[in-house]
Write a structure and sequence with these properties.
The protein contains two helices and 13 strands. It is globular.
Length: 204
């Protein structure tokens, strides 16, 4: 259960999904590497069927904006790849983070807790959409202002590559663009929420 406090932010039980999202708010600089399943470096994941394919390693700016009720999460390539920005949104429902639809026919993506400082973004249920594309996202705070994000990419039901991002928090706030943002200092932090078409053949 959540309750309203004087600052208009809800309070969350220690270790809950909302608690961890509050801990992770801000602007992060992620240094990202791709790997084959056996740990060998992977130079490019285009052939692996990545949702955002390209060379490795690369760097991201990550804006994680959470007000206790809604999430806006924007990734921006700043080095090693073309400067593309993608935004994902979601909201708290029944003490879980429920992402807005990823695209027509997509699985429902939810955020769940593994205890203090650990979140997983993954499908709520395994279904036909998961066999098309799924990428569980494990995020762990490892020290003050430090985090690790690790994913496993599944395409057509098979695990095909891993990704590891080591992040440093640049700011606890993300109300404006960072100076490293290739989009420039002016303009909105977040883009129109991303929608993929890879599941559209499963849409009713």
């Amino acid at each position: 259960m959540t309750s309203q406090n004087d600052n208009h932010y809800p309070t969350f039980p220690v270790g809950s999904v909302g608690y961890n999202l509050m801990l992770m708010r801000g602007i992060w600089h992620d240094q990202v590497e791709l790997f084959h399943l056996d740990g060998r470096p992977l130079e490019d994941d285009t052939n692996a069927g990545s949702g955002t394919p390209g060379p490795s390693p690369f760097d991201n700016l990550v804006y994680l904006d959470f007000d206790g009720y809604t999430l806006k999460l924007t990734n921006v390539h700043i080095r090693g790849r073309a400067p593309v920005a993608k935004t994902f949104t979601g909201r708290m429902q029944d003490d879980l983070l429920v992402f807005d639809p990823l695209g027509p026919g997509a699985y429902e993506n939810v955020g769940v807790s593994g205890g203090v400082g650990l979140l997983t973004f993954n499908a709520r249920q395994l279904d036909a959409a998961c066999n098309v594309y799924m990428e569980p996202d494990f995020i762990m705070l490892t020290a003050p202002g430090q985090r690790v994000r690790h994913t496993v990419l599944y395409r057509n039901g098979d695990a095909v590559r891993t990704l590891t991002a080591r992040g440093t928090r640049l700011s606890p706030l993300c109300d404006h663009r960072h100076e490293l943002d290739p989009r420039g200092r002016t303009g909105p932090v977040h883009e129109t929420p991303f929608q993929a078409k890879i599941w559209q053949h499963l849409a009713p």
